[in-house]
Specification:
It is a single chain. By secondary structure, the protein is an alpha/beta fold. The chain has a domain of 188 residues: Rossmann fold. Helices cover 46% and strands 15% of the residues. It has eleven helices and eleven strands. The termini are far apart.
Length: 271
């Protein structure tokens, strides 16, 4: 009953704030988006990249940030507010999200899928787009934002056609192996590289590396788990959660990856 009234209050609060042209933060749809410990790592990562950008006096191009997977725009607000504070108007944010149902057959067949965040989020994803655009429209930096409502493999063709090089790319879209691997490998190819200054690629939901999971599983068992479940959003084993598609894809990449305990990671393209 307590949960019912909490959801009811969240829905009513969202309705009134939306109609009063105020920011909406529907807790019944958030599913623990942008947890505090992760937001700190995300903010620090972008701040360090901005400092490197400002330290290179030869750079005259605007700072370009790409976000893959925006949902309600919680992380986008973090990026936009920090960029505006540090760079004024000298930046552009490109967000990429098709806002379409995305749950795989593997997730649909999962016995407890009713309680899974990915299934819940997929069911409401088209409605969420309205709240996403609403919240962005309230920001002072809204004219520095471009949203591409399409899948990332479609968006990259548009970005490449304009020869856009990016300073910061954040991946938090599909967690399925093929999708995530495409984003990681292809968007790292369009990172800016000017003398000593280089763009970075980063993301979320990298709770355990392959090496860390070897402490919990035999190698043969781990390989089977990862390959069998690479199109499953996340798995829970013995009360710990991880995203098999992300772990598997990163274990195969040649990109140098730095991992934080929060699940945030940073990727540096090798020369």
């Amino acid at each position: 009953m307590k949960r019912f009234f909490a959801r009811l209050w969240s829905k009513l609060n969202t309705f009134f704030n939306f109609n009063l042209n105020k920011k909406v933060r529907p807790h019944h749809l958030l599913n623990n988006q942008l947890q505090q410990h992760r937001s700190v790592d995300m903010k620090n990562t972008l701040k360090k990249q901005i400092d490197l950008y400002l330290a290179n006096s030869k750079i005259k191009d605007r700072f370009i940030l790409i976000e893959i997977g925006s949902y309600l725009g919680e992380s986008l607000n973090l990026w936009g507010d920090l960029l505006e504070k540090e760079l004024g108007n000298n930046f552009i944010i490109i967000s990429i999200d098709p806002y379409l149902p995305y749950v795989s057959d593997s997730d649909k067949n999962w016995q407890s899928n009713k309680s899974r965040a990915s299934t819940k989020m997929s069911k409401v994803i088209e409605k969420v787009y309205m709240y996403f655009i609403h919240n962005v429209s309230l920001k002072k930096w809204r004219d520095k934002h471009i949203h591409l409502r399409m899948k990332s493999f479609e968006a990259i063709n548009i970005i490449k056609s304009y020869n856009i090089k990016i300073d910061f790319c954040y991946i938090d879209g599909s967690h399925y192996y093929e999708d995530f691997k495409f984003d990681l490998e292809n968007y790292s190819e369009i990172l800016t590289s000017k003398n000593e200054y280089k763009g970075i690629i980063c993301g979320d939901d990298y709770e355990f590396s392959y090496t860390e999971l070897l402490e919990k599983f035999e190698k043969k068992d781990l390989d089977q788990i990862l390959n069998t479940n690479k199109n499953t959003d996340c798995l829970i084993y013995d009360k710990f959660l991880f995203h098999p598609g992300i772990t598997l894809a990163i274990s195969e990449t040649k990109i140098k990856i730095k991992k934080f305990p929060s699940g945030v990671f940073i990727g540096f393209k090798q020369d």
